[in-house]
Amino acid sequence: MQLTAHATQQTGARDADGMAVASFILGLVGLLVLNVFLGPIAIVLASVALWRGTARRGRAYLGLGLGVADLLVLVAFMQLDNTPSWSF
User: Fold this and answer.
1) CB of 14 within 8 A of CB of 53?
2) Reduced to 3 states, what is the DSSP secondary structure of residue 79?
3) What is the tens place of the pLDDT at every residue in 19-71?
4) CA-to-CA distance for 1 and 88, rounded, in angstroms?
5) 16 within 8 A of 54, measured Cβ to Cβ
6) What is the pTM of this model?
7) What would the mean pLDDT of 4-26 be, rounded to a whole number?
8) How many angstroms separate the first and last alpha carbons of the chain?
9) Which residues contact 2 (CB under 8 A, 6 or more apart)?
């Protein structure tokens, strides 16, 4: 079975759109739990989605912003507790 250039472009665009949505969801969840892990993952996924030219640029930018916010929340709680990590 031979794939055409058009078919591989559609698959790449769909993958980039999925990455944009995943970065948004992971960034949103990261505000509540596991922000030290989910924040950087959201940032990377959003960056790759934007680099690949996703049609969901808004979601990718939201995922990027939420990923950064995850890390800022982590730093804020670390400053409040004077510890290298925080917990509820």
Assistant:
1) no
2) helix
3) 999 999 999 999 998 889 999 999 999 999 999 999 989 999 999 999 999 99
4) 54
5) yes
6) 0.79
7) 77
8) 54
9) none
Contact 35, 7 (CB under 8 A): no
CA–CA distance, 80 with 84 (Å, rounded to integer):
11
Tokens of residue 72, six digits: 């800022």
Q: How many helices (H) and strands (E) does the chain have?
A: 3, 0
Long-range contact pairs involving 53-58 (C-beta distance under 8 Å, separation at least 24): 53/13, 53/16, 54/13, 54/16, 54/17, 54/19, 54/20, 55/13, 55/16, 55/17, 56/17, 56/20, 56/21, 57/20
The tokens describing 77, both together, are 């709680």
**In residues, how long is the chain?**
88
23: burial class by Cβ within 10 Å (0-12, 13-18, 19+)?
Answer: buried
